[in-house]
Hints:
Blueprint: E1 2-6, H1 16-28, E2 34-40, E3 54-59, E4 61-63, E5 71-73, H2 77-87, E6 91-94, H3 99-111, E7 115-118, H4 123-126, H5 132-135, H6 160-169, H7 177-193, E8 198-201, H8 204-212, E9 219-221, E10 242-246, H9 255-268, E11 273-277, H10 283-287, E12 293-297, H11 304-310, E13 313-315, H12 325-332, E14 337-340, H13 345-348, E15 355-358, H14 363-375, H15 377-391, H16 396-412
Parallel strand pairs: 1-2, 1-6, 2-3, 6-7, 7-8, 8-9, 10-11, 10-13, 11-12, 13-14, 14-15
Antiparallel strand pairs: 4-5
Helix pairs in contact: 1-16, 9-14, 12-15
Amino acid sequence: MKILIVTDVYYPKIDGVVVSILNLTKTLTKKKHTFCIIAPEYDKKVRKIRNKKIREHRLKGVSFPTYKEFKIAIPNYRKVNKIITNFEPDVIHIQTPGTLGLLGMVIAKRKKIPVVNTYHTSIPDILVYASPIKMLKLDKLLENSNLYVPKKIPKLSVPKKFKEKIQEIIPKLKVNSSEFTRNAVWNLTNRFYDKSDMIITPTSKIKDELLKYGSKSEVKVVSNGIELDIFTKKRRYSSCKKFLYVGRVGFEKRVDVIIDAFKIVNKKYPETRLTVVGDGPAIESLKENNKNVKFTGYIKRKDLPLIYRKHDVFLTASEMETQGLVLIEAMACGLPVIGVDALAVPEVIKDGYNGFLCRPKDSEQIAKRMVQLIKNPDLAKEYGKNARKEAEKHDLNKTAEVMEGVYKDCLSK
Length: 413
């Protein structure tokens, strides 16, 4: 088959979406399938993926205001239409609902090409952190809002009269502003995703969310999958004092909650260590007054397995994971995991089996669970073994085979 992937994020940027694309294409090209990828241009010097069965086309873009690492591709209808016409794909797989994803959908429908759409990110949640309200520092004026306000926000000049007017209007609103925004975003989201022949989501929890908010397309659960052969299990569990976070350091990932938990633990156990692997817009504010935390920045993916195995416990406080590939990678390396009971995390972390689930934003409860593992290394070892078993369910070879079946189903219909 000839499969065209349209994505608004791609290599050299690394996140869950990009890793899943790289893994899928790498695996399915071994089965003689051919891919064409349309993505934003980040740097002209970046080398293309070395695979004769994968073609790459880049479109120029501009940086996203609140996340400079993102690129918003400038939609060039003529160019994208020509790429699709020349490639003649059997199926178009849209990975993101950005400018390229929208353009890809329009052209696919006009050419009557089957469309598979993956719902990778909880869009209503991510928009909270990229909203004009947060950028203008007006979030405190919204009633019933649970938005996280980062410690360091760029100063923006907001007219005094505008602020006063907002202060007059907000108290008069009788609706929950957060829920109103969420419903509005879901309506727009469904307009896009319901044009798909098939929606793919990595967990059943996200499938339930899509159906709950009115999705009408067929939804299928397919894990993104990991390369189990690379993420091998650690051998020694002599101590439980090295804690780890891996991922994008964005405000929505709530790394601040993890650091606060670590501070509590570190006071009682000074020999404990916390390593934060990754980069992002929140990193500078998190580095302030956190000298005991090691920030590595971005590292090469080939070095990740060793880093996982050098640590004892993996931590996350993110409340918006649709699956969490780094969680599964850590589990594959035999690390017990501590996360929060939100969105799809409970499908990966089984409380009392391969780790612990804590209340969202509750640094004290996370700290208690960290201490529990420090005091009981045997429990950490047991959870680590169970974590590996759970991770084996997400073998990339199996998930890629399922995706191959999805493409064939869409083509036959």
